[in-house]
Structure formats: structure tokens, C-alpha cells
Design goal:
Elements: H1 2-26, H2 35-61, H3 64-78, H4 98-131, H5 138-162, H6 165-193, H7 196-199, H8 213-238, H9 245-263, E1 266-267, E2 270-271, H10 275-293, H11 296-299, H12 302-326, H13 334-359, H14 365-380, H15 386-411, E3 414-420, E4 423-431, E5 438-444, E6 447-453, H16 471-478, E7 485-489, E8 505-510, H17 513-521, H18 525-528, E9 532-537, H19 540-546, E10 552-557, H20 572-580, E11 582-591, H21 600-609, E12 613-619, E13 632-638, H22 641-644, H23 647-650, E14 653-654
Helix pairs in contact: 1-2, 1-4, 1-5, 1-6, 2-4, 2-13, 3-6, 4-6, 4-13, 5-9, 8-9, 8-12, 8-13, 8-14, 9-12, 10-12, 10-14, 10-15, 14-15
Length: about 675
């Protein structure tokens, strides 16, 4: 019994621990996008499905002896994949489909070990049910989810802050080798416990009736909906703060906790899932979750929305998984049950991570998922008393209306609305509130990424975060020399090209091809730029690693104003790359205007580590007569003390707080909790 439990706990612990380890390894290669995590989840969900399919087929078709031999050989073969380190040969070139490359990369790096970890859980439970016919194996399923939860929580709080990425992989690989020994021991023990006549024959299905098609459909539906909501809520949260393991792990932890409570939780002899209570809670949580979708102001209030969406995710998952647990079959059919559960999980993940970016122009999937939950709740209450049925109808109607209003708000008067792996983009024309001038805006998700006056006489005027009084505007003014070489990380609407003069050279690094297309098609900053300019598509850091030395006078790092923060552009290693391309006396300009994060101390520590000076420039535009300009924070890093002391720069310089106890950000360490506003 202890051997079975230990093996299942080890497999589930390793199964979920490897997810953030590998995702963090490859996150910088794909621009730090939140879609990296959801794509990883699709891979893990589908390999889980393949593992459950293998477990179902082998326990139904193969004699116990052959099961043990086949599984043991595969386990030994999987040791050839160790250590599980993503090869740098898989770094993208910039032109390929990032989602497809991630899927292939993960398959090559951890495919067989993850497949066997996935298969071992249901296999061992089947062996347990066969050896101990008087005990239920579903408690082992709850144990596996508890171990998975432990693996997830250990990563952000214990492993990530203290262990380098390389040693994270080495540690996991050593634990995996130990798991292989445990699993082979469990297989051998299970085979030996069988009577001699059962060792050489395929197992009988027993007398219990096989699950019906409606039963299997219900398993699939409830499992798919829980997985769908997990990824939709994770996307919603990560896109508004940062794509970091903690924000990936928290929704997934709540998802797993619902499995634990629904399949094994006991209180007073009853399960934690009480249908009446969770029907009520689900209806109650759907109201604010759907309501926030139609309000951009509430959506951006993360202190309110994150707790609501995470609590709502947990309640909705309790509803889905509680109904799933209530329909679990006799132990004889548990591999069939797990197969449908994993298929549902894979389909839910596929819809959000793979299909939605290609089929939808905006992030509409969360509202769709909430509508499905409300309709499923209504169906479950179809025979209830009239007041309960009426309440369910009202909830479903409100959710559907809110989803429709979200779509209308997103598409109303929009000129362009497109979406891909890196997020959703839209442009529209509007009028300034004070001067009534026409402007065109570019928004990525919910964050402004540039705007331009439509008046031909003013369209060359830098706006939003890049006005003449902003930190970057003053930086360009402070340079006396002509023919500047300028590097731009992040294109946006192309506003900074407005500073380009004849003889200047601008080298622009942009990861999203849709941004390049919109900047050239919807805005004229690039078209009107008098400087010579080039655009390099792909992750800026990877391109700078490969580039010959550029001798930039100014290198602008402009990727932190919102959406998912690309942390890999704010580490010691990244700054080392930037400085290789910066001339002596040049300026490294970080645009750190951000609604949620105070990145100024992070940049200051990076400058200090390189022996450079850092100056924080804050431009307060409250006195301007138009809302075409925004308050901005820029941090200039340079060895040019004379330039940093120029009056136009010193005029808006503000002190940088000292944090003696803060650690320097590196590729192995970052801490967003410290800088949350």
C-alpha cells in the first residue's frame, strides 16, 4: 500500500513540478508572452491524454506480465532524456509559428518522461484495484492531485527564488530517476500479488456494466469546462500583470484543489462538494465575473478583479469536478473514466490556447466559458423549484448579456481588431476631451501602445508616453551630435520614429508581426520618418545576441507599459547584452511607466551592478491642455555624467528609493511581489 501511494505521489509531484521549470526556461525565447504558459498547458494536457490512453489500452488488452515488462522498458528508455534542459538550438528565428515550435521543443525535451509520468497514475491505480478488490482506488486519485498541488506550490515559493534554472532541471531529473525505481518496484509488486492464473491472461472487465455514451459525454463535458475556465482565467490574469510562474501556478493550484476536495475530501462523513451550496455559490460568482468583463475600469482594478476571478474559478471548478466525481464509475472502469477526463481537459485547453487566438479577434473566451457554466447550472436545476429555476435563468441571461456587451465594447468603432500568439491588437479613432482633436489609438489588450494626431499638420508630433517633455524626448534633445544611431526595443505605433532626423539610423526590434503591419498601415510615424530605419522581427534579446555590435547612441527598452511583462528584458544578463551594443557615453533608456509595477528600483540595481548611473525622470502632464499626453516614468542608465546632468534632464529627475535588501534580477531570479504598487 505504501509503495503504491509513494509511487503515485512521486509521479504527480514531478508531473506538475516540471511544468513551471520548463516554461520558465523557454519563456525568454518567445518574448515573455503569457501565451507561452497556455501553450505549455496544451502540450501537457495532450501528453496526459496520451498517457491515459496508453494506461487504458494496456490494462484492457495486455496480460499483467506484459504490462510490467513494457512499462519497465519504457521507463528505463526515458532515462536517456535526462537531464531535461531545453536546448538553445530551439530558440526561434522570428519567422516560425511560436506555438508549434514550443510544442515540438517540449516533445523533444521531456516528451517520453512526461508521457510515462502521466500513464503511471492510472496504471498503478488499476494495479491497486486488481490487487486490493475491497478498497477504492479513487483516494489514490485525490492523493495524486495533492502531490501535484505540492509540486506547484513548492516551485514559486521555494525552488524559483533559491535554485538556478540549470539546477532546477538537474534536481528534477534526479527525482525522476528515483521515481523510475519506485514505479518498476510497484509494477513488480502488483504482478507478484496476482494469482498465477491471472498473470498471463488479459484482465476481465467483470460484471459491472460498461459506461453509457451519455455518461461518457458528461465526463467529457465537465472535465473540458473546468480546463477551459482554468486557461481562460489564467490568460485574463497574466495579461494584466506579468507572465510569471506564481500567476500561472495559483489558478492551476485552485483547479487541483477542487479535484482533491471533490474526490476525497471528507467533513463529518460527507464530501466537501455539497450540490445545493455550490449551485448557489456558482450562480453568485458568475455575476461579478461576467459583470467585470463589460467594464474596462473594473477589469483594470486588479486588487478587486484578481481575487474575484480566482475565487470564481475555484467555485466553478468545484461545480464541474463535483458533478464529475458524482458520476465516477466502478473501479473496474476507472481507466476509461480517466481517459475521458483527460480528453476533456485536453479539448478545453486546446480551445483556449490554440483555436481562440486564430478564431477570435479579442479575448472573448472567458465570457463564453462563463456562459457555458451558467447554462450547465440551469440544466442541472431544470427539475428544481420555480424560484431556483428562475434565479438560474436570470444568472444565465445576465452572463450572456455581459458577454455580448464585452464584445460590443471591444468592437465598437474599431478600425482594426486582430489577435495572434502575442495578444490582441485594435485601433480606433477618437477625439481628445479638451481640445477636440482627432486621434488614432493602438491598444494591446487593455493597454495603450501609441496614438497619433490625424491632423496632417500635427501627425509628426510625438504623443502619449513619448512627448517632447517626456524622459525620452529630453534624452534626444540632450544629444548635441547629429546622425544618431538609435535602437528601439518595442515598436508600438512607431511614435519614437518621429524623432528621426536625416542622417540618423533607427534599428527597431519587434516580436509581433501584427504590430509591424499595423504601425505601417494605420499610422504614419514610420512613413514620415526622415531617418533610415530597419525592423528586425523576433525577440529583441535573441536578435541582439546574434547582431554585430551596433554602437548605439541611444538604446530604448520599451516593453513594460502593460500586458505581460517580459522579465527577461530586465535582468543582469539582458543589460550585459544591451551594453555590448551601446557606445561609450551612450544612454540606455528604460520606459517603465506601468499601472501595477514599480520597475524603477529594479533598473537602478541593474545600473549599479554595471557601475553605471541611473536617473529616474517623471513627467507630470496634468497641466497640459490635452489628453494626448500621458504621465511617464523613464529611467536613463549611462556612464555619461555630463549628459545626465543637462538641465533638460535634471529638471524632471526624481530620487530613486534605496532598497538595500533587494536582490539583483537575473535570468534565474526575479521578484514581482516586491514591486507591486
Amino acid at each position: 500500500m505504501l509503495l503504491y501511494a509513494s509511487t503515485i505521489a512521486a509521479s504527480s509531484f514531478l508531473l506538475f513540478l516540471i511544468q513551471p521549470i520548463l516554461a520558465k526556461q523557454i519563456l525568454p525565447w518567445f518574448g515573455g508572452s503569457a501565451a507561452v504558459w497556455t501553450t505549455c498547458l496544451v502540450f501537457f494536457q495532450f501528453v496526459l491524454l496520451f498517457g491515459y490512453t496508453y494506461a487504458h489500452w494496456t490494462t484492457r488488452r495486455l496480460p499483467a506480465r506484459v504490462q510490467v515488462i513494457v512499462h519497465a522498458l519504457l521507463l528505463l528508455l526515458s532515462l536517456a532524456f535526462l537531464p531535461v534542459l531545453a536546448s538553445s538550438a530551439w530558440k526561434p528565428l522570428g519567422s516560425e509559428d511560436p506555438a508549434l515550435r514550443i510544442l515540438v521543443l517540449l516533445a523533444v525535451t521531456v516528451g517520453l518522461p512526461y508521457f510515462l509520468l502521466s500513464a503511471s497514475g492510472p496504471l498503478i491505480q488499476a494495479w491497486f484495484a486488481r490487487s486490493f478488490t475491497d478498497r477504492t482506488p479513487y483516494r489514490l486519485f485525490a492523493l495524486s492531485n495533492l502531490a501535484s498541488l505540492l509540486g506547484l506550490l513548492i516551485y514559486p515559493f521555494t525552488m524559483e527564488p533559491r535554485v538556478s534554472l540549470r539546477w532546477q532541471s538537474y534536481s528534477w531529473s534526479m527525482l525522476y530517476a528515483l521515481f523510475v525505481l519506485l514505479c518498476i518496484g510497484s509494477a513488480w509488486q502488483g504482478w507478484r500479488a496476482l494469482p498465477e492464473q491471472l498473470r498471463r491472461t488479459a484482465p476481465s472487465l467483470g460484471d459491472e456494466p460498461a459506461p453509457t455514451a451519455p455518461q461518457r459525454g458528461a465526463w467529457l463535458l465537465f472535465a473540458a469546462l473546468g480546463s477551459f475556465l482554468l486557461l481562460a482565467v489564467t490568460n485574463h490574469v497574466c495579461l494584466n500583470i506579468a507572465s510569471i510562474p506564481f500567476l500561472w501556478v495559483l489558478p492551476l493550484s485552485l483547479y487541483l484543489l477542487s479535484f482533491i476536495l471533490c474526490f476525497d475530501g471528507r467533513v463529518g462523513g460527507k464530501t466537501w462538494y455539497r450540490r445545493g451550496l455550490f449551485f448557489l455559490l456558482t450562480g453568485a460568482m458568475l455575476i461579478p465575473m461576467a459583470g467585470f468583463l463589460q467594464s474596462s475600469k473594473l477589469t483594470l482594478d486588479l486588487k478587486l478583479t484578481i481575487p474575484v476571478y480566482l475565487a470564481g474559478l475555484f467555485v466553478c471548478c468545484m461545480f464541474c469536478h463535483g458533478e464529475l466525481a458524482a458520476r465516477k464509475p466502478a473501479p473496474r472502469h476507472l481507466t476509461s473514466f480517466y481517459l475521458m477526463v483527460s480528453l476533456g481537459g485536453a479539448l478545453g485547453a486546446l480551445l483556449v490556447a490554440a483555436l481562440a487566438p486564430h478564431l477570435l479577434s479579442g479575448y472573448y473566451e472567458l465570457g463564453f466559458g462563463l456562459l457555458l457554466v451558467s447554462l450547465l447550472l440551469l440544466f442541472q436545476l431544470r427539475s428544481a423549484a420555480i424560484p431556483y429555476l428562475l434565479a438560474a435563468v436570470i444568472v444565465a441571461g445576465f452572463v450572456g448579456l455581459s458577454w455580448r456587451m464585452q464584445i460590443d465594447r471591444y468592437t465598437s468603432e474599431t478600425r482594426v481588431k486582430v489577435r495572434n500568439f502575442y495578444g490582441s491588437l485594435r485601433t480606433w479613432d477618437t477625439t481628445t476631451s479638451d481640445t477636440h482633436e482627432r486621434m488614432r489609438k493602438l491598444v494591446h489588450g487593455a493597454i495603450l501602445h501609441g496614438e497619433q494626431f490625424l491632423d496632417p499638420q500635427k501627425r509628426a508630433v510625438p504623443t502619449s508616453y513619448y512627448s517632447a517633455t517626456s524622459g525620452i524626448g529630453r534624452t534626444f534633445k540632450a544629444f548635441d551630435k547629429r546622425e544618431l544611431r538609435v535602437g528601439l526595443i518595442g515598436l508600438g505605433a512607431g511614435t519614437l520614429a518621429a524623432y528621426g532626423r536625416a542622417g540618423d539610423y533607427y534599428r527597431i526590434y519587434e516580436i509581433n508581426p501584427l504590430v509591424v503591419d499595423i504601425a505601417q498601415r494605420e499610422f504614419t510615424f514610420l512613413k514620415d520618418c526622415r531617418a533610415h530605419w530597419d525592423i528586425l522581427l523576433g525577440d529583441a534579446r535573441l536578435n541582439l545576441e546574434k547582431d554585430a555590435v551596433q554602437d548605439f547612441d541611444v538604446l530604448v527598452v520599451d516593453a513594460f507599459s502593460g500586458d505581460a511583462i517580459p522579465i527577461h528584458l530586465l535582468t543582469r544578463e539582458a543589460v550585459t547584452i544591451y551594453l555590448r551594443h551601446l557606445r561609450k557615453g551612450g544612454v540606455l533608456a528604460f520606459h517603465v511607466t506601468n499601472r501595477y509595477l514599480d520597475l524603477v528600483p529594479v533598473v537602478a540595481l541593474l545600473a549599479q551592478a554595471q557601475g553605471l548611473r541611473a536617473v529616474h525622470l517623471f513627467d507630470d502632464v496634468k497641466g497640459s491642455n490635452t489628453d494626448a499626453y500621458s504621465d511617464t516614468d523613464w529611467v536613463l542608465v549611462s556612464d555619461n555624467a555630463e549628459l545626465l546632468a543637462r538641465p533638460e534632464i535634471a529638471q524632471i529627475a526624481v530620487p530613486i528609493p534605496q532598497h538595500e535588501d533587494w536582490r539583483l534580477w537575473t535570468d534565474d531570479f526575479s521578484n514581482l511581489f516586491q514591486i507591486l504598487k
